[in-house]
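REVIEWER CHECKLIST
Item 1: Sequence provided? yes
Item 2: Single chain? yes
Item 3: Sequence as submitted:
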Amino acid sequence: MNRISKASGIATALAVALAVPSAFAQSAEDGIARATERLSAYSNVPVFTAPGEPFDIRACAADKKMLSIPNSSANPFLKGIIERMKAVGEDIGLEVVEWENQGQPSQWVQGFDFAVRNEFHVINLISGISPATVEPQIRAANEAGLKTMTSHFYDPSFEPNPLISSALPIGFNEIGKILANWATVNTDGEAKIALVVSRDVPPTIPLVDGIMSELAENCPNCEIVREINVGVAEWGTKIQPSVQSALQAHPEINLVIPIYDSMSQFVIPALRLAGKLGNVKVATFNGTPFVLDFIQQGYVDMNIGESLDWIAYATIDGHMRDLCDLPVPDKLNVPFYIFDDGNVADAGTPAQFDTGYGDAYVTGFRTLWGLD
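Item 4: Structure as written out by the authors:
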């Protein structure tokens, strides 16, 4: 190689070396811009969209009983939804009963037995119980003339268990993408994440997939430093020490994402004990009131909210349509809304189940059901 060509080669290599960081920076900036734009869709007060044609819900619900079985009664989010379903049920003549349990499959089985013995009409598996774990009980309920339905459980990408009468899925993958985009924007593309999950709950899979795919697209310098997988029945004993250990082992962690916000009651003490409270961001999903209070207190930074009251209305709407052989919506029509320190006061002080989302859904459902 002559001196001229050698010098040219060095210059070319130097230009490439200088261009790579520049291209990487541009890619990161583009990713932050995309993430910011995608978050904007969740920053306005939600609008009600009718999930189906009007019907006489009181005629449908008259003298009917629904047993709601959460994956665990220790989950405040599910407890709140069921309490709101009871209130809506009283208004339309539907008796709603919660099957109290501590997240044990044997207790879910007992719930089915109770529903069959006491001649319920609907069994609602709410957010967490996979029908596959109770298939013999669903068959027995079907034979007894009961309808088993799921709500707030399947992602739209899932194929519902053929034994259930209907399903009201929500966009868990979409939720994961919102969490990832928030992480990208609010760490300037430098998120080092401790991700707290429960892989025993099937919707966790599409939710985590949403986080991973969106980070891959929009945040080349973001990283899941530690995934902490804790079964629902063990949240109270394992989340706190596991998060605390992760924070101590990985001081670069700047964001904790407990994917279901009721996990936050165990994450916050871990942050406090690790001396990280207020320095490490927390972003989560569900909109449970006590976690919205955590935002006001400065412990949590963001919560993707769903009105628990809206969920209650939408769940009863879908289940009553099924009970009366009407077309069932293909999803639980409840929009997502981002709460942070800029708007969380709208949820009340302390926060309420049905505050901060507007009241269009109440008027919408009551009109749809012929109550107003």
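Item 5: Key structural point noted by reviewer: Confidence is low (pLDDT under 50) at residues 1-20.
Item 6: Recommendation: ____
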